[in-house]
Amino acid sequence: MLAMCSWLLPSLISLIAVTHVAAGEFSFPVAVSSVAQAAKSFDRGLLWFYAYAYKEGEHHFRLAAHHDAKCAMCYWGIAICRKHEAIEAGHPLTSAALPYSKTSVSLLRRNEAEEAGGEREISDLEKRLIEELHESLTQKTPGEGQQYLIAALQDLRSHHADQPAVEAEIVALLTDAMLFADAIDASLSHREQAISILRGAIPEYPHHPGAWHTYIHLTERNTTDELGLMAAQQLPSFSDGRIAHFEHMPTHISWRRGMWDEAIDANLRAIATDHAYFSQNGQGLSALYYEYHYLRERAHT
């Protein structure tokens, strides 16, 4: 499949070098480690998670844990990647994610015991995220677990309304959980609620790639939504020349509005980004799947 468009690569890579938007900045709003390289790898893992690139996300979370063996949030990151991967594959969530969630809780408890006189204070955000994910994975059914997680994130948001960066992160995780509730159990749909939350939050916090990504998936059929156009314009700025899926996502908005050139350009940039990244970093089946998706969408437009 990769050879199918190899003749396009030189022109595509030139195109992305010329037209790529300056990379948006993304970082988790609280320190998850006192080790700089661990914190950097964690941020990169979460960015890949928000791009639905779960293998790459897990890779960076594992790198973060390698740099800081005490990083409880690093194992939380692995757990959320494993959970979402299981949702998409239709596999049991508990067996995929729970072992890593248990590790994150164990490290959290150890860090709490050592917190007095330690290098950093454990934030309420990381403590609650770790505990609530773990509790959600121990519910009787995946649907009950997702409902629990959504309620917990809603409560967590209410306690951090005075901290804009923290609330923005919670909103991104909350609406992502609402979007994926459909995939777990269609009767648990929170789509309209998620749209309402994002429409209120995005103007306040317009620089979160997870929020933009979720918003596009929730509202792409609404061809008069100006916020959807803004999402399509903003999300590629977070690709950092690495994340092809963020380059591709404007297609979901453009082609429904007859913006054929924009849709084609988005998919060409996504293909070029994938080739440039995976020629240096290796690739997995998810990369092949998404490249097929980009090629199909280009043909469709």
UniProtKB/TrEMBL annotation:
Q: Which domain of life is it from?
A: Eukaryota
Signal peptide extent = 1-23
Q: Signal: present as a keyword of the record?
A: yes
Alphabetic keyword roster = Signal
Name of this chain's protein? Uncharacterized protein
Q: Which organism is it from?
A: Vitrella brassicaformis (strain CCMP3155)
